[in-house]
Amino acid sequence: MWEKTLHDDLLWKAGTLGKNIDLKNLASLNLPSWTWAAYEGSITFLKDRRNLRDTSTMQTSPIKEFEFIKMTGPYQTVQLPLHEPVSMVVHLRCARIPKIGSIKPVKDDEALQTSPFRHDPTLRNRPILLSSLADYRELLDDDDEVVGHLNLDTTDNLSPTDELWCAHIATLHDEMYAGPDPLNRMSYALEVDGTAITTFPLNRASKHTSDSAILAYCLILKSMGTQEDTYRRVGIAEMKYEWIIQFSSRLETLV
Distance between CA 241 and CA 217 in Å, rounded? Predict the structure, then answer.
C-alpha cells in the first residue's frame, strides 16, 4: 500500500458481492489486522467501479480524513512470516459505537434512498453502498437512530460486551459537473435555428466533489486492552457524516 492511496486501500470488506464470510486470521504471518493480506478468504474493495465513459458512476475518490504519522516494523520487502509486528500510528477522528443492530438482508438499487446517508437525488451519480453488496448490520446511536452500516471481518473473538470504535478514514462527496472554462479557446460557437449556442468538446468537461458529504468510511476497531490507544481492525463501516464529525481527533496505533 502507498501513502497517497492508503485511505482507499484500507477500505475493503470481507466476502464477495452478495456474500459475507468470516475471514481466518493468519496470525503466524505477523501481519497487521488492517491489511487484507493478514487473512485467508475473499475480500471486496469498496472503491466504486469508476467508468469515465459512464457518467452515472462515481468519478472521484473519497477524500482522506486522517494524518499518517509513522509505520513501525519492517520497511523493506521481506519474506513471511515477518520477524516483528507491524503497526501504523495515525491521527484521526475516533468514536465509540453505542449499539450494533441485528443482521439485515442486502438491499436493492433503492438502498441509498432508504439509508441514513445524504445524497442529492437530482444527480445521477449513485455510490455503491455496503447494504447493496451483502447482508449488513445497522449501527445505532444512543437514541437508537441508525447512523451507519457495518460489515465485520470475522465474528471470532468478538462478544456482545466488546467495546468497539469507528475510526474516520475517508469521506465520499457528492459530485457535480464542472462546466467549460469561458476563456477556453477550444470552445466554439454555432447557430441552430437562429439561436447562438456555445459548445465545447466533451473531453474538456470534468467532475469535481461538492461540499455535500454523502457518507463517512470508517474502520471498526477493537481495543487491545493492555496497550493504551492501540487497536486492531475487526470490520468496516459507512457512517452518517454528521454523526462522526462531532467527535475529536487523536493519535491511535493500529496493529
Answer: 9
Question: What is d(CA 229, CA 19) in angstroms, rounded to the nearest whole number?
Answer: 33
Confidence (pLDDT) at 208: 52
Cell for 162?
Answer: 466488546
Our CA angle for 55, 61, 62, nearest 5°, is 125
Give the largest Cα separation in the chain, rounded: 77
Q: Which one-letter amino acid corresponds to residue 180?
A: P
| Amino acid letter, 104 | K
pLDDT at 186 over 60: no
Average pLDDT, the chain: 81
Cα distances (Å, whole numbers) of residue 251 to 4, 115, 171, 242, 247: 19, 31, 19, 21, 13
Residue that has been written with the C-alpha cell 523493506 in this structure? 76
Separation between Cα atoms, residue 73 and residue 40, nearest integer Å: 22
pLDDT over 90 at 166, yes or no = yes
Q: Global pTM?
A: 0.83
Please tell me the distance from the alpha carbon of residue 82 to that of residue 173, in angstroms, as a whole number: 38
pLDDT in tens, 98-111: 999 988 998 866 66
Using CA atoms, how far residue 138 sits from 13, 40, 97, 144, in Å, is 15, 26, 11, 10
Residue 155 has pLDDT above 90, yes or no: no
Q: How confident is the model at residue 6 (pLDDT cuts 50, 70, 90)?
A: very high
For residues 130 and 149, the answer to whether their CB atoms sit within 8 Å is yes
Give the distance, in angstroms, between the CA of residue 101 and the centroid of all CA atoms in the same chain: 20
